[in-house]
Amino acid sequence: MPSGPEDTGMEMADFLPYLLNQAAEQVSLEFQRTYKDKYGMLRTDWRVLFHLGRYGDLIATDIVQRARIHKTKVSRAVVRLEAMRFLVRDEVSTDRRQEILRLTPAGERAYADLSRIADDYNQKLWRNITPSERKRFTAFLVSLAGMDQRRRG
Amino acid sequence: MPSGPEDTGMEMADFLPYLLNQAAEQVSLEFQRTYKDKYGMLRTDWRVLFHLGRYGDLIATDIVQRARIHKTKVSRAVVRLEAMRFLVRDEVSTDRRQEILRLTPAGERAYADLSRIADDYNQKLWRNITPSERKRFTAFLVSLAGMDQRRRG
DNA sequence: TATTGTTATACTCTATAACTATA
DNA sequence: TATAGTTATAGAGTATAACAATA
């Protein structure tokens, strides 16, 4: 039954699925404003841009495997990033089904800008956590995400 | 640039928004199967059921405030739970805009079943975490979620 | 036959505005 | 005028099947 004045919105704070969802939603929302308002990107667009910016030219299948994004999402993000003139497609001589995805100078600039903002934001989020706790929490989240085991195709 | 064979899907594991999202998604997905496959519920349905089961009869506004769910979502979840015969609406004599939401015996049974499963699942998720770490981690997630400050209307 | 990538479709979730009926 | 709750609509995220082109 309802208790004191402090009893507001905390009832499910012991239930990890709920708590994770609320935290992820708030945190995503805040960072989303950067790539959405500034560049008109969706979440998958940002993730694909990140992988191309950080790891260089890749084909779609590379991104599918590295970023854990389904191929249909990657396909549509590439279409959008292409429309924004942030990437171009190059032919692969050995396999005509594939295309190398390459950032344009504008794409590189967007990546540099966003990845710097992302890094700052990340540091800010972790600021009250000690390095050893951060390591433990990260490992915990990685295991919850199944990132220590699963692969996608 | 791409490195070793272990370099798969871990590139963004240092970026907390991504990591939280992946963890929340996996964990939600697993628990979702329970309320979805067994009862045909959506996420908001389960949350509303949880609040009614745990705190007794409430009006929609109570659920909005306690569960941090927007009134339009609560409204639609109530319609669905009513269609499932899991709750009924009672008139409030003092204000005809409000209705008391009350679980039926079937609703109580669904709550008892699901909340037990939820509790077991929650314990399982935390099983490798010490109590003090769990406390710290919960506080961290609560602060990320803004649940230590914000209220909704 | 299998793989790469695309298109189509449906469902869920989120967000907001506009509305009703009551207060 | 304000509040409780409903309805409508759009955008975004997720999931899956089916497909064309190529291997």
Describe the secondary-structure layout.
Two copies of one chain form a homodimer.
Chain A: H1 16-39, H2 43-55, E1 58-59, H3 60-67, H4 71-83, E2 87-91, E3 99-103, H5 105-126, H6 131-144
Antiparallel strand pairs in A: 1-3, 2-3
Helix pairs in contact in A: 1-5, 2-4, 2-5, 3-4
The structure holds a DNA duplex (23 and 23 nucleotides).
Biggest pleated-sheet summary of chain A: 3 strands, antiparallel
Please indicate the count of domains of chain A: 1
CATH architecture level-2 label of chain A: Orthogonal Bundle
Whole-number radius of gyration of chain A?
A: 19 Å
Strand content of chain A: 5-15%
- Span of the ends, CA to CA of chain A: 48 Å
Enumerate the spans of chain A where pLDDT stays under 50 for 5 or more consecutive residues: 1-9
Q: How many β-strand runs of chain A?
A: 3
Greatest interface: A-B, 57 and 56 residues
Supply the CATH superfamily name of chain A: Winged helix-like DNA-binding domain superfamily/Winged helix DNA-binding domain
> Pairing-aware structural class of the strands and helices of chain A?
mainly alpha
CATH topology of chain A: Arc Repressor Mutant, subunit A
CATH class of chain A: Mainly Alpha
Please state the oligomeric state of the protein chains shown.
homodimer
What is the global morphology of chain A? globular
What's the SSE pattern of chain A? Answer: HHEHHEEHH
